[in-house]
Amino acid sequence: MSAESCLAANDWICGTYVRTRSQELVDATVEHVGITVASVVLGLLVAFPLALLARRRGGLAGPVLGLTSVLYTVPSLAMFSLLMPVFGVSVAVVVTGLALYSLTVLVRNILAGLDAVPDEAREAARGMGYGPGRLLFEVELPLALPALLGGIRIAAVSTIALTTVGAIVGYGGLGTLILEGLDSYFKAQVLTASVICVVLAVVADVLLLGAQRLLTPWARVRAREGS
Amino acid sequence: MGALADAWAWLTTGANWAGQNGVWNRLGEHLYLSAVCLALACAIALPVALYLGHIGRGGALAVNLSNGGRAVPTLAVLVLLTLTPLGKHGDLPTIIALVLFAVPPLLTNAYIGMREVDAAVVEAARGMGMSGRQLFGRVELPLAYPLIATGLRSAGVQVVATATLAAMAGGGGLGRVITAGFNTYNTPQVVAGAVLVAALALLVEGVLVAAGRLLDPVRRRTVATSAGPGTGLRTGAGAEVRTGAEAAVEPKAV
């Protein structure tokens, strides 16, 4: 009885809402995660060659980092609006915009990670007859992994939060529920969607931190020796 | 590139700049809200961060705050505030959200700036008989300045971006030009609004970067005694820390 009335009373917390609209919430969450994953993966695919190019030609590093910082400064609502004429009202607007944002952190962190590879390691690999490709994939990248994963973590967490703004073109995952909830003054919907959003960000952060620890066991040993 | 030409036509139409929904009025709202909120956020965050940095406590708070700020969607906070009773008081939800999202970058950067001051320099200053207050004003503050300026720039960009989003939750500002364009399926207006917002954000960032450089207390001496040992203290250790801190600290402005 009282459970029914929380909908009518427009309470912030409403079990009935979560139960009756669970499908809607699941769909929005799936869309949210899908947009985030697609954006960060697309960002990685572009950031990688960009970072390698910037490293090979020292003169390009400044312009590449500068351009990505400029993109980073553009507010998300403006970014999506500028991409809308290019892609029409579609999910591509949101994914492209978020991928462009993640570039900044990813390029910067990949470059920093590669720069931090000790010259001795490089020399040793060359001395053992490693070619440039093998040197990159078997020596430099594994050593740059902590910085790369750190970048992915930051990119993922901020992308989850930013995906909500995609609601302006109707592809904002949980953000769409938040914006609809504002129009219909539906408090439970807004709060529930917001909380799921924060939980998603925290879960992504913890999962990626776990991945970082698993993939780079040497970093922990070094930290312990250092302290 | 038809969309840009249409947007240009929209921007060069005088009627779009006049009146309550015109660009001038929205720009005024945007700048006013941003400036007030940035000042409020500085008044809250900087004293706390500088004090905590000076006594060397509360590092976990400073770092977690910025991580938390990154995870919380700005749109959600704006909409939640609008639905509370605060939403009946005009711009109040926007102001609260703007301040909330400007505090973390200011606090974290200023705190880290204070903590990254070379311990040997602090020791030397103490050895010279400086009091806590002298140490703070003459040594720690000038050396922490670059990161404080970074925090201010980051917070400024954040505030401009958040003020744009406020339009989605019914607030004023330049974002209104965009949302109004969406509501009336007026693509030229959407693009024109987006160009204005992007230009404003870049301009604010540029101005804050230039102001930060001009006001740098150590830079003036750097020019005089290029690469003296005193400046090396900061540009050597500090520069490295700064790039690392920027990558780790700065949350994406909405």
Offer a concise description of the structure.
The complex is a heterodimer of chains A (227) and B (254). By secondary structure, chain A is mainly α. Chain A contains eleven helices and no strands.
Outline the structure in words.
Chain A: It is found in: Cell membrane; Membrane. Chain A: It is a multi-pass membrane protein. Chain A: Residues 29-208 form the ABC transmembrane type-1 domain. The complex is a heterodimer of chains A (227) and B (254). With 227 residues, chain A is mainly alpha-helical. Chain A has a single domain (2-226), classed as MetI-like (MetI-like fold, Orthogonal Bundle), CATH 1.10.3720.10. In chain A, 84% of the residues lie in helices and 0% in strands. Chain A is built from eleven helices and no strands. In chain A, helix 3 crosses helix 6, helix 3 crosses helix 9 and helix 6 packs across helix 8. By secondary structure, chain B is mostly helical. Chain B has a single domain, classed as MetI-like (MetI-like fold, Orthogonal Bundle), CATH 1.10.3720.10. Chain B has helices at residues 2-11, 23-55, 59-71, 74-83, 92-115, 119-127, 132-165, 175-183, 187-215, 219-224, 229-249. Chain B is elongated, with a radius of gyration of 21 Å. At the A-B interface, helix 4, helix 5, helix 6, helix 8 and helix 9 of A face helix 1, helix 3, helix 4, helix 7 and helix 8 of B.
